[in-house]
TrEMBL record:
Stored SUPFAM superfamilies: MOP-like (SSF50331), P-loop containing nucleoside triphosphate hydrolases (SSF52540)
This protein's GO CC annotations: ATP-binding cassette (ABC) transporter complex, substrate-binding subunit-containing
Location of the ABC transporter domain: 4-241
Molecular-function GO term, any one: ATP binding
Name of the protein: Carbohydrate ABC transporter ATP-binding protein, CUT1 family
Family: Belongs to the ABC transporter superfamily.
Highest taxon of source: Bacteria
Gene3D superfamilies (alphabetical): 2.40.50.100, P-loop containing nucleotide triphosphate hydrolases
Keyword terms, alphabetized: ATP-binding, Cell membrane, Membrane, Nucleotide-binding, Transport
Pfam families: ABC_tran (PF00005), OB_MalK (PF17912)
Organism in which the protein naturally occurs: Salipiger thiooxidans
Signal sequence, start to end: none
Amino acid sequence: MAKITLDNLAHSYLANPASEDDYALKEMTHDWDDGGAYALLGSSGCGKSTLLNIISGLLQPSQGRILFDGKDVTHAPTAERNIAQVFQFPVVYDTMTVQENLAFPLRNRGRDEAYVASRVQEIARMIGMEDMLRKKARGLTADAKQKISLGRGMVRKDVNALLFDEPLTVIDPHMKWELRTQLKKLHHDFGHTMIYVTHDQTEALTFADKVVVMYDGRVVQIGTPEELFERPEHTFVGYFIGSPGMNVIPAKVEGRSAYVNGAQMALGHGYGALDGKVEIGVRPEFARLSQSDGLPIKVRRVEDAGRHKIIRAEFFGHGINIIAGEDDRISADMNRVSFDAAHVNVYRNDWRVKGDAA
């Protein structure tokens, strides 16, 4: 296990980057706690895998350092970093049995056969492959091979970190839930530092203690699921987390009020003068449809999502979403919306502005 420090780290795939836009990974400095479970979350091309490959040693950064427990490993080869990595697509030895594949990392480090047998049995039970241990990996399905790959990554207890690069892509949905649960249990039992790359918010939020949200090569927020939901530090976080995501509406902000097309609404905090691009952000869960309270909207359609209803509406020319309860009555004369002032965030140039509570 190790504390991982990213010190002034940045990376460009160009030989001579001339501006920030030339960097696939923008400059960052972060400490990730020893024994923490982190998810790197973001859309395709945001820099998640680049960052993971720098941590693992598969890629050398253009600038900055990687430290494990304060030791500089920036130029250390992968083998010297004592990490285990599981990739998006399965990497297994086809000529070996499932048992031999799982045992390989332990035998390669000279562990005695009694320990190897015990640990392999434990991992096989964890990934649901106890009855397949004597089968050759060749000819197994893609998701069975990926379970072997996951098991081989988890079989060692002494690694500094376990790195997962979208490991459940080829796994069927039911098995995804089971394997995520097993990974959480593994983390709880052994306290490995874990970093899990995914574009799936459900995977990230159910796996990680802290989610690292990335956008355009930059870490825009590190936080618990609750923090990402309640206080998105960047409009992308609000948009990407939640289904549907946060409503983002251009506004003018003065003191404890926001104005959209001249219409006033209350804010939970006071704000000074804001220049640049100013917007308010409010989750659909904190918007309420009514007959008489709030500001006018045009309801376009209502979608029944089972446990709740999603109201798609137009608000001063901007599309917004409102979430209503499963049993809430929605009628044609309900054409106004109000927002919970305590849960309205204010953004300047896409970044959240901290208001004055006084």
